[in-house]
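pasting for the record
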Amino acid sequence: MRIFTFFMIFIMFFCINKIVLSQCSAGETLIQLNIVPDDWGSEITWQFTGPGGSPTYSSGGPYFDNNTTPVNEDVCVPTGTQVIFTIFDSYGDGICCSEGNGSYSVTVNGVMVATGGEYSTSESTTFFAPVLAYDISMDPITSPFPVLGTGETVSVKGSLRNTSSTTISSLTLSYKAGSEPVVTETFNGLSVAPAGEYQIEFSTLWTPLVTGNQAIRVWLNYINAGNLDLYNDNDTVNINLDVYQGAVIPNRMDDFLAAPPVYSTIATSSNQLNKPTDLDFHSDLNRKELWVINEDTEITGGSTVTIFNAGLSNQSSVYLRDGNAWHFMSLPTALAFGTNSNWASSPGVYDANHDGGAPFTGPTLWSSDMSIYAQNAGPGTNGSHLDMLHETPHGMGIAHHKDNAYWVFDGNSGNIVYYDFVQDHGPGQSYHGDAIIKRYPQVSVLKDSYVPSHLILDKNTGWLYIVDTGNDRVLRMNTNTGTVQSALTGYEAVAEYSQMTGVVSETVIDTGLTRPCGIDIVDNRMIIGDYNTGDIRFYDISVNPVNYLGSLSTGPSGLTGLKIGPEGNIWFTNRLTNRVRKIVPSVTTDIEVVQEPMEIHVFPNPVEDQLNLHFGDKFDFSALIRISDPLGRTIVETSLNNKKQISFNCSDWLEGMYLLSVQNGKENISKIIQVR
């Protein structure tokens, strides 16, 4: 009994002595770090430094692989010091989710200031020791992207972290875009605990009106109803934008049928075309930069031919293949440019790893920057790709939605899938934890064993038109409909993977097509290619069912991709002849566009997330816009500010009927808006 008592006293003395030794000296503050390594601990290092990286108070790592034993470190810093904690991962996939369930946390005198594990190469948090009562740190702006076109309506998004000791219940934030007026919003009903992160999304959307270099600035005004941030240096973030002239493509489709058009060959196998499956123009149409994607072989992976000054006398081309195309671009069926100069491809292979395992395949995001694409210069080991997700074996087609989001034809499951890469992980990296994936099993499609199935989004209406090659038909689905039915489990950890229900879809063409492939839209005209016949068929989509207008013969079979180019001409690829050709009308019909000057166009209506209002010419720049909810409360009040179009984010509005009222001088115009 005495032995046991002595042993317990010794243990207590040792523990007390250990606690005492772990405390800091007078004038110092204790910081405690806890790390749970993932399976690849040898990739993890960390450091505590002062501003600018000096001095270094403490650092650690790497750790042993396959050892997830928690690591605890105590660091003492002078009281009142500003400290930067940074955790690194040499592979670029963070310490959570991809290879284990690692995590980290940092506390100062018991107040947590940082926590996480889902990042790419590194993640930093700046804080004070001791922690300030009110202090937030603004993270970089995530939307809009640095490149976008005029007329494109975008959300202003970002995030911030609570590095204070107080839970945040409300925030007042502002943004200023270009020369536009300042937008200020208060975000209420929050509960952002210390070390927590909040995703910012302003409800007032922005539409750039002029080209050139512009800037967006986002800043903090108040915390918790009037309290000022006690450290202001990290309260403002900026992003510089390169705004190009947005796509304005003339509708010349009826001219192609008025008289025999003129055909010309743009590129052949001498330009290294090798079974081309699709084509698209760079989003800045003034560049006249045409990208063509080659199927090539499964083992080598696909490739691209970029044609500069396409169709002009000084045309040139560049052939490129990414170093890891065997995985990221294996048997590509399509490509689609986003409005931010990135583009995405849909690998048509079942298993991108080619090892007989799980079908780890899906769309890939690429940069159009020639200093990045296919240069394999990223710090990771995965070529130059910007991002890839893996829930769509046999991807038979792809269409851009907005930002880094795309629609994909899943030939393996026979349905349509929405992919949002959100922020790309950088060239050659592998972080996918922020991605959003939504599957629509109600939209049933069938792949052809050999021919791609392309698709295109009509961004004016929200209808996604789908070439259902296996069923010789064309469908459309309303992308403004559908709700989450249940969560799905995929091959990797992402922010959201959901099964959707309640989507509206319908067949629009089910006759006249023998093996449809290739599709594009301009205004109320749609063209569809036919792989077997080589024909291009023209349709009026302003009516339902759509109205067939006529067809053009392009010659031999093998027609794959179709694109209506900057001048309204038709460009197409032929996989069997290894050619890109252009079609130009031989006659031009003058079309007078009559606009109802006092008309307000509201779309979509009903609406779920983004409400767009388009105004005629006679609306005054100071016209007052007011939207009232079903209880008569004003939820939006702003002026037109000399714009033609204004948009609002209404994703958090309650369902019901809203009243839009526009006071234009002495005239008042009202419309009903249905939110669902």
